[in-house]
Design goal:
The protein is of the alpha/beta class. It has one domain: Carbonic anhydrase (Beta-carbonic Anhydrase, Chain A). It has eight helices and five strands, in the order ααβαβαβααααββ. Strands 2-1-3-4-5 form a five-stranded mixed beta sheet, sandwiched between helices. α5 crosses α6, α6 packs across α7 and α7 crosses α8. The two termini are 32 Å apart. Belongs to the beta-class carbonic anhydrase family. It is an enzyme of class 4 (lyase). It catalyses: hydrogencarbonate + H(+) = CO2 + H2O. Pfam families: Pro_CA.
Length: 213
């Protein structure tokens, strides 16, 4: 079993992707999900990644990355929209808990992005606080449209990139950790049909040429 207590950003990223590969292959190991692990993490937690994802019920983080108790510090909102509470939670995971990796997890068929596209295209209004979610996704949709994109996949990828940039640009704490090489921020796009998590963008982590679309 991999010791995740002192991973580098790259090691944390590779550990996460290895878990997703096991999930996709249908051969999960279910690490850190037993009574011994439950007892081990009672005194303190040291997650190796902060996962900021969409609230979609089909994106259960510990399942799709085959991890267990104490491995992931999970923050989720509809459309992975980021307000002050989200930024504070992510900063806590990095600066207090010491996580070397922050993951923004989007996915295909995202309802928040679809609703925002509808609102931008034909003025479809949402009620209550759903409107706030749409307003926060709108900059990503407008940028994708301005770039000439028309496919759902491109809008999803654009929103993931926008969220990664927003986190690093708005959080001085996160930016300093990335600049120091202690933390990396990556954006992944999850495919509902086959369970794969594909790299979309990365800050503070070098990836092979052509690895990011």
């Amino acid at each position: 079993m991999t010791d995740t207590s002192s991973l580098t950003p790259r090691e944390a990223f590779e550990t996460l992707l290895a878990g997703n590969e096991r999930f996709v292959a249908g051969s999960p190991e279910h690490p850190n999900q037993d009574a011994a692990r439950r007892a081990e993490v009672v005194p303190a937690q040291k997650p190796f990644a902060v996962l900021f994802g969409c609230s979609d019920s089909r994106l259960a983080a510990e399942l799709i990355f085959d991890r267990g108790l104490g491995d992931l510090f999970v923050v989720r909102t509809a459309g992975h929209v980021a307000g002050p509470e989200v930024l504070g939670s992510i900063e806590y995971g990095v600066s207090v808990l010491g996580a070397p990796l922050v993951v923004v997890l989007g996915h295909d068929a995202c309802g928040a992005v679809a609703a925002t596209r509808a609102a931008v295209d034909d003025g479809t209004a949402a009620g209550g606080y759903v409107r706030d979610v749409i307003e926060r996704v709108t900059p990503s949709v407008l940028a994708a449209r301005a770039a000439g994109h028309t496919e759902d996949e491109d809008f999803i990828a654009g929103h993931i990139r926008h969220t990664v940039d927003l986190l690093v640009d708005r959080s001085h704490v996160l930016a300093q950790e990335v600049d120091a090489g202690r933390t990396a921020v990556v954006g992944l796009s999850y495919r509902l049909a086959d369970g794969t998590a594909r790299l979309v963008t990365a800050r503070g982590l070098e990836v092979p040429a052509g690895a990011v679309p």
